[in-house]
Batch of 4 targets.
Target 1
Amino acid sequence: MQIVHQLRSGGDMDFEEITEVIPWDVLALDCKQDLNSEQKYFPRCFKSHEQYQHIAKGGRYIYIARNPLDAMLSFFKFLPQWMWVPQGSVTIEEFVDAIFAGASNSGQIWSHFLGWYEHRKDPNVLWLFFEDLKRDLRSSVLRIAKFLDMQPTEELVTKVCHMSHHSYMKDRQVKFDDHFVFDHVKAQIGLEGYKHRATKVRKSGGKVGEGKAALSEPILKRLREKWESIIESKTKLKTYEELCEDVRKSLPEYYDTKKLAAHFKHIKIES
């Protein structure tokens, strides 16, 4: 969201919380936002967690994937805090049970992946990976710019990378913490009078591989079995890493350095 907004605005941080300028599709009505109205900058942009079969059609879609092990741990650190669940009252095992039972309105990550994977070659779908954003933010910014038919200057690319880096966003985390949504829906979820306390930009930042290191072997086994039954059974891809590599090979115009560089002849791209 931050990358797209800074590319389209040229570096505008004049918002209290980013959902004000990039509405969340299924919660816009609750937040008194009109999805059909014009936005300050072009192209119009919306946040979504929806599976492919449920998302509104007719736009361009940037799909961000993350290793399910890391995503599960990150979700555990975020959701109970967002819902004001007393600290320590829910174990990670209980949280995983709830997710497997369907606690997430957006569905489970494996079927989510699968639905979007089937459309990975669609010209209006761009797959990106959390791990690539962490490893090489600049290339990810350029992929997004190409996908949106933008030709940013070298100066703007550098500016967007700086403003989308964890250290920059951490110092301004209140602008990325969902408090705008929370304040509009808290009465509906029984939290009227509560003050938002969750954060999405944690001090230490999300780390690649943290799930495998922190989750217990029984949980890891359950996650592997989910992968095997939903993704591997349909795609023959045995791991998340294989999925990433397969998608990158499917999108050479974005993941082949020479092809990406050809689109940005005025910008230096390291191979």
Target 2
Amino acid sequence: FQLQLTPFNSTPTSLCTDPRPSSVENCGTEADRLDCVVDKTFVNLASLFADRVEGKVSVEVDVHSAKTVEEIVARAKRMKAMFQELAIAVSDKILFKVPATWKGIEAVRRLEEEGIHCHVTHVYCLEQAALAIRANAALLQTYVGRTNTWYASRAAETKANCLGEGVDPSLVGVELTRQIDALVRCHKGKTKIIAASVRNREEAIALAGCDFLLLNERVIAALNEKPSADKSAWVAHNFHDAGCPDVPEGIDEAAFEVALASSPAGEELTLGMKNSAVADERLREYIKQRVAPGSGQ
């Protein structure tokens, strides 16, 4: 395997400024305009990737300034319009990335009802996954290594969170992903699963059968080192043999928040949202300093 990277010629400023007509010009206050430029920056970058890859591209919806379900939906729709201005086939090429909070998943449900496909991130418990699947999310993302780390010192929680008793602590993240796969099959859902934070060859092999794996170059190299005679073991492993987990149909917001607090989701969502907010603020400061108000996009 050889990873080939194609350099982009666009500079950060060029991603924020684009001479083509845009709905950015129709934004109201300076604060609204800044939100629009942030969205347009992500759209411009995602469009570059969409032109260069065969599959779909995920683009983040800014859920820090969009704090309600209605605002998240409105942001995604505005970004969809921006993609259409660039002649990107949104339904075929773009997924809108939304974190698996209560409001985020409800926004995903409404967007999917309108044919706007979503990528649900920060999924660390079955309750998050069940709601995302029932919302018809196109894609949900698990984090195998981070899940393993959280459960390493909380072995009793694997049974409490319906992940089985006596599960190998190094494979709890794999087991969660398998259980989510079973949920999709039980609900006859359309949702696909991408497993991220895969830290080694053993985890990657145990995940064989998952829809998508996000692997770094080190793990790919380790997989390629495996003797071809042993590769039958990959096929023999049945990722899809988990039974349907017992997740209640009627999960209300209070039960959802309890599930977050008793799983890695509580800590990881908080940390992920915090890191994202810091990066978002840095981008906003860059835009305010380098992209003059009223200069197009």
Target 3
Amino acid sequence: CAQPPPSNRSATQTVGLASVWNMSISVGDNMLFAVPKKGRLYSRVLSILDAVGLVYRRANRLDIANCSNMPISLVFLPAKDIAYYVGEGQVDLGITGEDIIAEADVKVNSLLKLGIGKCRLCVQGPKGKFKKADELAGKRIVTSFPRLAKNFFSKFDKKLGTTTSIKYVSGSVEAAIGLGLADGIVDLVETGTTMEAAGLEVVEDVMKSETVLISNPKNKHPELVSSIYKRIQGFIVAKNQCMISYNIPKKKLKNALDITPGHESPTVTDLSDPAWCAVSALIKRKNAQNIFDSLEAVGAKSILTFAIDNCRFPCDFQRSLSGHLNGVLTDSKSPPKTP
């Protein structure tokens, strides 16, 4: 991992690049927002930045870009380093994975799950060789997550009186067993393609992970953090929801509203025919076809759906800072926890 720059940030900040600290760009008093500079999350995160209206130009070979429409500077860093920088207060806001936050063991506010980069950190072994993770206790484990791997196997070592060897490698972890460096590995599984190609299988899950928006608990730009949080939340909601509109006989209105209760309340409008009314409501996009069928069955007509580019709903930002994100409009049954 790259070493962080000095901890004191002056009024006129100068932030070095992630890899070459003697090259720098002045960012003034801007809020610093760390995003992945490459990898599987890069293009998806750029789409989010565009959707929330951040206008910037990243110069060739520079890992810092000042936004022209907000006092924000984007800092492009390796995803594995972002949790450290946010936790140490070198940047105010960041996007990275829950697995990386857990491995870094730093104090950050986990504000919002972004619905991308979903994966599992798993104990893996050769196909058919191990049925339970404790069978690998006392053996050689190779991983890019040494802290999480050590914590996971410590309970087995304590119970069985073994000492599991945890070795760190930065990449191509799945090759370690085939090369004779390990008996098992702890690595991320997204689709499982790489794991299966290496002749491995999941023995046990260590944790589930997805990409999250995080902030430093003592950041100096709470209003900007709140603004970016709300913009990203609006984008995520818009991506997963849509508006539905239909006409329904008033005598069937209650049945229809049970099907489309909306977010806060549906909009109901009288039509020129006094026996009919029009309804519009927010629904989950993935449920749209089932809702069409149900509405048609209770007598609805002229059923239409409309895409949403972005939106803004009331939310308690301070509750989200405490790890209690308002759970409306998400599939999550529990709020994200502050690490």
Target 4
Amino acid sequence: DAPKREWSVQWSLRGENPWQRCWSWRGVEMAGVVQQLRGRFQPQVSGTTRLCHSACADRCRASFVVDAQRKFACSLPAQLPRRCPCGSKRLRLQASLADALESTETNLNPLTRVEVLSEALPYLQKFHGKTVVIKYGGAAMKDPSLKQRVVDDLVLLYLVGIKPVLVHGGGPEINKWLERVGIEPNFKNGLRVTDEATMEVVEMVLTGKVNKSIVSLINTKTGSQGAGTSAVGMSGKDGKMIRARQINPDLGFVGEVVSVNSGLVQALLEQGCIPVIASVAEDSEGQTLNVNADTAAGELAASLKAEKLILMTDVPGVMVDPKDMSTLVREMTIGETRSLIDDGVISGGMIPKVECCIRSLAQGVAATHIVDGRLQHSLLLELLTDEGTGTMITA
């Protein structure tokens, strides 16, 4: 008779293989029973819900009991062991930080709060004063609740001493406004064909509506929190920040980045501001060009010598099988990334993202990440937890 609950949880089994495979379950209902997903959990129901781990290399049958009457993440740290009882693997559930930040309830037990803070503290110390460039796009821009959570996370990162820089596109919003003015969106090989009329709409939407709405959300949040900072919106044209050249005349005014001048962004960071940058650039003759937001973010991260580049997407990360979450690649090097491209494992729209990461790493960025922007607090999970989220690419 337990009330229905929903939770999002990632279960990571360290050391099983080079990719440190991760399994995720979402939307599982607790109503005295637990839905079996992917065969990884075998529930046994009594007064509480028993989750049996059977993926251990030694095939042990260790069981972990979760109280069905309480919020899932809040009861985990006190009840789950750090290691499988057989001693062969280190187990960890990553849900406490996001849920603790998300929850407005007062029933979080003290141990949960202490464990959340103790896990985050080393990362707060490590990244204090460091610059993190975030490419913002996809579902996280379309869903108002996700949009607000990204803003909340940005402000939190600023408050703990991290310097966030946000670079954004705005494809869905551009398409909506093109339809309003009677221009049909046209794509070729995944790239938007941008004639003069389309370029006018692109610039208007990205540097006007989208950019200023993000700035407004951040400034409203910082004002209510007394954060002592403000967001400043701009495009790649401001301060001659991003210079580009036309890729292909057949694509119209679509550009590729050729140089970045990050002086203006650096000055804003030193003044305690949060830069919000639309992915619009210009060429040497002043012609406005539409550039890929991933590429713009990567090149800007390299110019700023950022600690991290985080690309927010609509997928969990790099997966060997896009339909199987268990094949998520947790961490890989540049060499391993190139091998996966050559083998056809990384294909389609993921290729430009990982290539963007590789270029950034080659130019001095310490680490790059591809994370699921649909996951609540994905930025905080990546930066402030042991397990992180998505795929990390390092040199």
